[in-house]
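Thread: flavin-adenine dinucleotide complex, take 2
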Amino acid sequence: MRIAVIGAGIVGVTTAYELASDGHEVTVYERRASVAAETSFAIAGMVSPGYVTPWAAPGMRRKVLCSLFQKHHAVHFNPGLSLQTLRWMSKWWRACGRDQHQGNRASMQALAVFSHARLRDVTSRLKLDYERTDGCLLLLRTDQDLASAQPSLALLRDMGIKHSVIDREASVKIEPGLNPKTPLHAAIHLPDDEVGNCRQFAHLLRTVAQNLGVSFRFHTEVDRIVPGGRPELVLHTNTSSDSDQASVMTDGVKHGFAATVPIAIQAEREVVDAIVVCAAMDSSKLLVPHGLKLPLIAVHGYSVTAPMRQLDSHPDHGPQSGIVDDHYKVAISRLGSRIRVAGCTELGGHPTKHNMAAIGTLYKVLDDWYPGIARLSRAQSWKGARPMLPDGPPVLGLSGLPGVWLNLGHGSNGWALACGSARVLADLLAARAPAIDTRGLGIDRFRR
Ligand SMILES: Cc1cc2nc3c(=O)[nH]c(=O)nc-3n(C[C@H](O)[C@H](O)[C@H](O)COP(=O)(O)OP(=O)(O)OC[C@H]3O[C@@H](n4cnc5c(N)ncnc54)[C@H](O)[C@@H]3O)c2cc1C
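Output below.
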């Protein structure tokens, strides 16, 4: 089949790879200059199947309301929330109920476990090196944090995910660089989880996909899709004089650097056998004109990345792998010789304007655990838009529009879920039974 994939974030790249592996002729359309240039750009990099759970969960409503009254908090509300965000929040509120949560959690976790296995399989077969390290340590500052973690621990036990609850001393054996002055009551160690550079993985997999025949059309924006037996795309190409380097510059537009200047625009139509929409937040623009309204909003988050200082006297002074400060919901990860701190949940607000309070929380958590480790003069901050559905799981499979398939709405877990989602989508498209039960992952749940 001739298949068009719209979007070259981590979800689009993995989808293109799996479809090409099945023998399809695949073209990826991406408006940016390269892969992983938007939300998949500078994320924490955690692949933690046991922590892939819906944001809509029992107890979350109270946590979100409490965070309104704390100085350093995980959730930021910007004034003047749109009607769309308020509607999303009312759906999210309902999805926090115990029964709905359990179903959504089961769907997400089955996908997360499968996805991690698929990531490992792809990585070892293709020998991809993407700054990955093994293990994750979830830091619990107080006994109260440990008490709040009990439902998560029960979940890890239910899922059979290898983990142990350890004290401060054992935590320091795993992460010798942790600041001894910051109180640490306990930690949950997940030795089989991993941290890796999502953007680097996307670049490596793009090359593999190209070798399988996938064509990537960058600087190409799909303006419209026309569903049908042979669906069509209406698109235009912004041809600019820049090369791959332009992705950095184009990202710069988003993050306040210089812009590249388009020098020509060409409009075209393409007829294919199937379209797979992997356009994250902007999927709605393509689907709404056909009456398909998904409750998808951007939940922004931030990261700060900096080179680590080299200290010959303390070679273990940085994180060995992934760390999550459970109290602030902030992740700290080692990516090669760099350290990245990421987190924050921001509703509403401008897509590019940085919330200094949120970034302040990232710096505080980094300073609490690894004071002085980062060369802050060379730190880069980044803001990304998590494509979030109110109930948690992404949408995978047929859209209900002829010839149009969906792989989108991965929220906080797109990297952890990408390889599995892509394989499931490819199996569904080939009318094969996927390796996991896909109930709860389809679009039908929004039609009820
Ligand atoms: C601060 C932060 C930390 C995170 N940490 C983690 C983590 O540790 N682990 C994890 O699993 N997840 C994490 N996430 C979530 C993860 O980043 C997302 O779920 C994931 O990147 C979504 O991937 P995507 O491919 O759907 O979207 P994107 O990467 O945004 O890709 C969509 C692509 O579609 C393109 N596009 C859109 N419309 C069009 C069009 N009309 N024509 C052509 N191209 C189009 C865009 O340019 C874009 O490149 C984090 C997110 C944030 C913000």
